[in-house]
Amino acid sequence: MENAVFHKLCGLEIEGGFLDGQKFDFSNGLNCLIGARGTGKTTVLEFIRYAMDEIPGDQAAQKRIASLIKQNLGGGHVKLNVETKNGLKYTITRAGEGSPIVLDSNGQPTDISLKDGGLFRVNIFSQNEIEAIADRALSQLYLIDHFEADELAEIEMLIESLKCDLQKNAGQLIPLTDKINKLKEESKTLPSIEEQLKAFGSEGGANAEIINTAHNQKAIRDREKRALNDEWKLLTDLEQQIKNLSAEADSRMQFIFSDEILSGINGEKLKAAKQSFSCCMDTVKEMLTNAAGRVASEKESLKVQGTELKGIHEQQELDFQNLMAQCKDAQDKALERGNLEKSRNDLINKGKEELELSRQLNLLAVERKKMLQKLSEQQDRRYQIRKKITDKINSDLHPTITVTVLQCHGREYYQERLEKFLQGYGIQQAVVARKLTNAFSPTELVGIIQSDTQKSLEALIETAGLNETQATKAIAALEGPEVLHELEVIELADIPKIELNDNGTYKETQTLSTGQKCTSILPILLLDSAAPLLIDQPEDNLDNRFVFETIVEKIRKIKQKRQLFFVTHNPNIPVLGDAEKVFVLESDGASARKIREGNVDDCKKSIITLLEGGDEAFKERQRRYYN
Q1: H-helix or E-strand containing 581?
Q2: Closest to 79 (Cα-Cα) out of 35, 31, 21, 125
Q3: pLDDT digits (tens, 9 = 90+) for 344-378
Q4: Is 538's pLDDT higher than 90?
């Protein structure tokens, strides 16, 4: 067993509170905690949960655990020694208030975060929690996932990262789309203006060609002036950004290292950090100063170029005015034509801006498409792992128990969001949302809403069973980019289904009796896994025959490959399971302590007294059974 490849909890030390001064050295195999009620057995398991930061998501459970920790640890702390399946040893220490700290084998703090299995996961199930698993799909999914916790945790991190990136992407796409639409709307007048200018240019006359050339050159002068103005604006914006960055660095430096910190217990270390940081910022500020100087120099050069160009433009404008003075017919129309040219130049600039923004939009759209594809791939990858797990469970437990995972089967959240989107549109949002949810996946619905309006209507009417009014209003409610971007990333959850063979009929766990629920879940918990398994009173709601024939048998088989911890009042588990370590606890009401530990033979008297009811009760039952 010493060479078995699985994670291990090596020992627990408690300072302060109900179990003050108690130390538990755990076996790699089966560990059992026994004692009368109120002696701290459950508290030991919950201290391990607390140290490993395996707090459940259920708020009621969180409240219960927080209350237990507060009452039984108070201002003290727990220290948990662990060893990974790769042989790496760590110590986790956690006070009654605060987060866990992970120390390496030399006692030095690490940057390991235990949240969501940063080191390794432990599977801890409180009293009656096994029954609750049978009733909750989410708990059953967690139960399945723990068999490949590390790989699935990595996938979940990737999925959450992609969702975050997609949200940022949507935050860029939406204002960019709005701006492009506004520019497109403004540019609709350009063809009309060009037609009017074309009409001016087609007018005949002796000097028509000279006049048209002069007007064209005047329009170009306006564009030249705009180009230099745009360059000036760009340089000014850049100059301001550099100033802001430098000012922000100065401002934030003042608040990072306070006098209180610098004069504290680690003041010298913090002073060195401040000095190094100051040197870094001096270098950065020097670079910013150089950059600001280069921009200022370019602005001065631009001023000179602008002055020179202004002189040229003024002379050319005088020549233009003289020409117009010689051509009375053209002079009357020069102002109108000049205004049209300016409007045309405005719209040309906006067209260029629209092209640039459209280029950025296309890049963001391509990026979004790739991220959505990656998201789908990770979700499929996660499902395949879950399917592999259920195949393994079924091969071990069939025909007594069967487990399946239905991919993308959970649509509750999807329907909830659709109902929210449909509010205020004068339709029965719950009814319409349910029909849409049943007819289309979120991705399919996005594609339909983005297609031609008539095709969208036909799809919602024919496939989802909406009437024309409902379909029209649903499209209006869902066609906004914010809604479509959210719909794109709504995930349909994988839903597990655990069934127990009840005299030849497979029944889902939610329909079973309390005892049958535990009968269906416990064998799954006791399958091979690298994660330590801790259960508070697994025998609850089970008959002794099932404990003996099923639970004990699986314990003896699995304890060579997985560390086990049981709080129990059933002698079959430590005795017939041949526990390597039995911990016997007692309490005087104010505090609890460990009074004995060892193997079954070492703790035989305590097992008989606490779990069999004493020598006389044990002998009396034996006499009654066999006489």
Answers
A1: strand 581-587
A2: 21
A3: 888 988 998 899 999 999 999 999 999 999 999 99
A4: no
Q: What share of the chain is helix, strand, coil (3-state, %, to 5)?
A: 65, 15, 25
Question: Does some domain include residue 359?
Answer: no
Strand ranges for 105-212 from DSSP E: 123-125
Give the DSSP H/E element, type plus range, for residue 300.
helix 267-326
In a domain, 107, yes or no: yes
Distances 364 to 161, 179, 360 between C-alpha atoms, Å: 17, 15, 6
In terms of Cα–Cα distance, which of 407, 408, 418 is closest to 486? Answer: 418
Q: Are strands 493-502 and 581-587 parallel, antiparallel or unpaired?
A: unpaired
Q: Which of 537, 504, 531 is nearest to 518 (CA)?
A: 537
Let me know if residue 542 belongs to a domain. Answer: yes
- How far apart, in Å, are the Cα atoms of 348 and each of 193, 223, 568? 11, 10, 81
Using DSSP's 3-state secondary structure scheme, residue 446 falls into helix
Q: Residue 190: which residues within 8 A CB-CB, separation 6 or more?
A: 344, 347, 348, 351
Q: How far apart are the first and last CA of the chain?
A: 42
Identify the DSSP state of 490.
P
Range of the domain at 550: 8-122+531-601
Packing angle, helices 442-450 and 453-462, rounded to 10: 140
179 located within any domain: no
Q: What is the CATH number of the domain that holds 111?
A: 3.40.50.300
Q: What's the domain count of the chain?
A: 1
Give the three-class secondary structure for 24: strand
Structure tokens at 439: 């007819």
Which residues partner with 534 through β-bridges?
124, 565
What is the pLDDT at residue 337? 81
Give 380-423 pLDDT, tens digit per residue: 999 999 999 999 999 999 999 999 999 999 999 999 999 999 99
pLDDT of residue 1: 44
Look at residue 551 and tell me whether its pLDDT is greater than 70: yes
Phi/psi for 556 (5° steps) reads -65, -35
Residues 555/560/562/564 CA torsion (nearest 10 deg) = 50
Mean pLDDT of 97-123: 88
Percent of the chain clearing pLDDT 70 (strictly above): 96
Residue (of 521, 519, 506) closest to 546 by Cα position: 519
Q: Token pair 């050339």 is at which residue?
A: 213
Average pLDDT value for residue range 156-164? 94
**What pTM was computed for the model?**
0.76
* Strand pairing class (505-508; 101-103): unpaired
